């Protein structure tokens, strides 16, 4: 009672009314504070590890809020430091070499219209690297701009158009639902087989302006996430091990990982909520 009302009345006055020694109150209050701190610490540690050591104070604060806790980022940060919890986003990042440029005359149809109001309408893509034993392998992901969901992905030892085709092959549903495919001008996206695939399913093409990463900003940001959360610090023993780990990561990314741009919902949760509103 005293703890719940100490913002209104003085502790001394309440103890006098209740005929309770102040020393008793402070002793019990200290024990309660310790218990609360231990409970909060346990929750923060649990949330951090379930995020695969990725979440910082901002996302942990939102996860705590879902559980009914109102905790400042400053306090969360203090507890994380005490527990030695360091987000992967603090790790220095390696920048790979750029591939040759696709000199196609295709223009930037997307024109940075990254906010889309329909699922599976506009998709973007890019490639990134991952170490398998002593060699570099590559990951291709196809991202739905509507809810940032990874709808198709692939991995392999070659950074080429075949990897992009394999990612398209993993997309569930009808590819004819897709209306626009946007990428940067990496040479891996310039291939007759890819052009035929897009033509077959009536998917329009869009390319970033040469040397302008901002034209494919969502894909760039997503690949930074994948590099930080999945690639950095990892060495896989085989392509099969990489495939299994990537499958697990994509499922977590789509169904569990919260995204600030989606109101701190996962891509699947965002899509479900939007569909329920429409219904």
**Helix run count:** 10
How many strands appear in the DSSP assignment?
A: 6
Q: Largest sheet at a glance?
A: 6 strands, mixed
Order of helices and strands: HHHHHEEEHEHEHEHH
Shape verdict:
elongated
Q: How large, in whole angstroms, is the Cα Rg?
A: 25 Å
Task: Give the uncertain stretches in residue-range form.
Answer: none
Share in helix: 40-55%
Please report the distance between the alpha carbons of the first and last residues: 46 Å
Q: Please state the average pLDDT score.
A: 84
Q: What class, by secondary structure content? A: alpha/beta
**Percent range for β-strand residues:** 5-15%
Structure description:
The chain is of the alpha/beta class. 44% of the residues lie in helices and 14% in strands. The chain has 10 helices and 6 strands, in the order αααααβββαβαβαβαα. Strands 1, 2, 3, 4, 5 and 6 form a 6-stranded mixed β-sheet that branches. Strand 4 (180-183), helix 7 (192-200) and strand 5 (204-207) form a beta-alpha-beta unit. Helix 4 (57-66) crosses helix 5 (73-83). The two termini are 46 Å apart. The mean pLDDT is 84.
Topology:
Blueprint: H1 2-5, H2 11-17, H3 22-50, H4 57-66, H5 73-83, E1 122-132, E2 135-144, E3 149-156, H6 161-169, E4 180-183, H7 192-200, E5 204-207, H8 217-231, E6 235-236, H9 239-255, H10 267-278
Parallel strand pairs: 1-4, 1-6, 4-5
Antiparallel strand pairs: 1-2, 2-3
Helix pairs in contact: 4-5
């Amino acid at each position: 009672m005293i703890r719940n009302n100490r913002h209104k009345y003085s502790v001394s006055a309440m103890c006098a009314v209740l005929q309770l020694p102040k020393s008793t109150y402070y002793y019990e209050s200290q024990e309660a504070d310790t218990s609360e701190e231990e409970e909060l610490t346990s929750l923060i540690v649990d949330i951090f590890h379930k995020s695969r050591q990725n979440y910082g104070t901002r996302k942990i604060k939102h996860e705590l809020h879902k559980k009914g806790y109102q905790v400042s980022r400053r306090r969360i940060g203090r507890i994380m430091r005490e527990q030695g919890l360091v987000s992967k986003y603090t790790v220095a990042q390696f920048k790979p070499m750029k591939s040759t440029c696709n000199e196609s005359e295709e223009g930037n149809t997307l024109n940075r219209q990254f906010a889309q109001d329909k699922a599976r309408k506009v998709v973007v893509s890019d490639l990134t690297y991952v170490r398998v034993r002593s060699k570099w392998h590559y990951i291709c992901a196809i991202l739905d701009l509507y809810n940032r969901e990874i709808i198709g992905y692939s991995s392999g030892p070659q950074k080429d158009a075949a990897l992009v085709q394999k990612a398209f092959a993993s997309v569930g549903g009808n590819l004819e639902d897709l209306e626009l495919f946007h990428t940067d001008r990496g040479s891996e996206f310039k291939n007759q087989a890819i052009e035929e695939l897009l033509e077959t399913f009536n998917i329009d093409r869009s390319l970033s302006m040469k040397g302008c990463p901002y034209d494919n900003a969502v894909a760039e940001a997503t690949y930074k996430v994948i590099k930080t959360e999945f690639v950095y610090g990892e060495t896989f023993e085989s392509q099969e091990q990489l495939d299994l780990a990537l499958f697990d990561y994509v499922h977590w990314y789509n169904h569990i990982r919260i995204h600030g741009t989606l109101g701190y919902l996962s891509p699947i949760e965002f899509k479900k909520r939007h569909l329920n509103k429409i219904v």
